[in-house]
UniProtKB/TrEMBL annotation:
<keyword id="KW-0449">Lipoprotein</keyword>
<dbReference type="InterPro" id="IPR018247">
    <property type="entry name" value="EF_Hand_1_Ca_BS"/>
</dbReference>
<dbReference type="Pfam" id="PF00036">
    <property type="entry name" value="EF-hand_1"/>
</dbReference>
<keyword id="KW-0677">Repeat</keyword>
<keyword id="KW-0479">Metal-binding</keyword>
<feature type="domain" description="EF-hand">
    <location>
        <begin position="127"/>
        <end position="162"/>
    </location>
</feature>
<keyword id="KW-0519">Myristate</keyword>
<keyword id="KW-0106">Calcium</keyword>
<dbReference type="GO" id="GO:0005509">
    <property type="term" value="F:calcium ion binding"/>
</dbReference>
<feature type="domain" description="EF-hand">
    <location>
        <begin position="49"/>
        <end position="84"/>
    </location>
</feature>
<protein>
    <submittedName>
        <fullName>GUC1C protein</fullName>
    </submittedName>
</protein>
<dbReference type="Pfam" id="PF13499">
    <property type="entry name" value="EF-hand_7"/>
</dbReference>
<dbReference type="InterPro" id="IPR011992">
    <property type="entry name" value="EF-hand-dom_pair"/>
</dbReference>
<dbReference type="GO" id="GO:0008048">
    <property type="term" value="F:calcium sensitive guanylate cyclase activator activity"/>
</dbReference>
<dbReference type="InterPro" id="IPR002048">
    <property type="entry name" value="EF_hand_dom"/>
</dbReference>
<dbReference type="GO" id="GO:0001750">
    <property type="term" value="C:photoreceptor outer segment"/>
</dbReference>
<feature type="domain" description="EF-hand">
    <location>
        <begin position="85"/>
        <end position="120"/>
    </location>
</feature>
Length: 187
């Protein structure tokens, strides 16, 4: 197992060791499948919307698109969520919303991902429709019904309320807390 000892990233060695042993305990094969990912986070039995969201998160963490999250992809994801700069996070959010991968987010994509997130987080002050309309109203500069990466990043960075809302709504740190402390229902 010596090959995976020296890891990239700015995490401390003990911290990396902690994640590595936890990852290998939860996933002895070193390859985390979507099913195991959901199990690790205690998110089985979600409604279809919630499932869709978790699948999108999994696909984005699966950098080489082989259908598994290996340890380096896992660490890259943790680094992004914990230490990522705001524009890195916004790029990540954009990828999450851009379900068809065409480089633009339309209202339907944003609505479906926000509905899915609400299904998991459950707490929100506005409906998915209100959220979607507000985002487009604020940052769809040319009013074409689609957001490019540039429109999205500059729009969100310009608007503090929107930045806070997006960061709070899509905060994955609760997911990470589960990963750090182990499964919620572990004995």
């Amino acid at each position: 197992m010596g090959a995976k000892e020296s890891l990239p990233g700015d995490g401390t060695a003990p911290e990396m060791h902690h994640y590595y042993s936890k990852f290998m305990r939860e996933c002895p094969s070193g390859q985390l499948s979507l099913h195991e990912f959901k199990k690790l986070l205690g998110l089985q039995g979600l409604d279809p919307q919630g499932d869709l969201y978790i699948k999108r998160v999994f696909d984005i963490f699966d950098l080489n698109q082989d259908g598994f999250i290996d340890f380096l992809e896992f660490i890259a994801a943790i680094n992004l969520v914990i230490r990522g700069k705001i524009d890195q996070k916004l790029k990540w959010y954009f990828k999450l919303y851009d379900a068809d991968g065409n480089g633009c987010i339309d209202k339907k994509e944003l609505l479906s991902i926000f509905t899915a997130i609400q299904a998991i987080n459950g707490h929100t002050d506005m409906s998915a429709e209100e959220f979607t309309n507000m985002v487009f109203q604020k940052i769809d500069v040319n009013n074409d019904g689609e957001l490019t990466l540039e429109e999205f990043i500059s729009g969100v960075e310009r608007d503090e309320d929107l930045m806070e809302l997006i960061t709070k709504s899509f905060d994955l740190s609760n997911v990470l807390k589960v990963i750090q402390s182990g499964r919620r229902h572990s004995i």
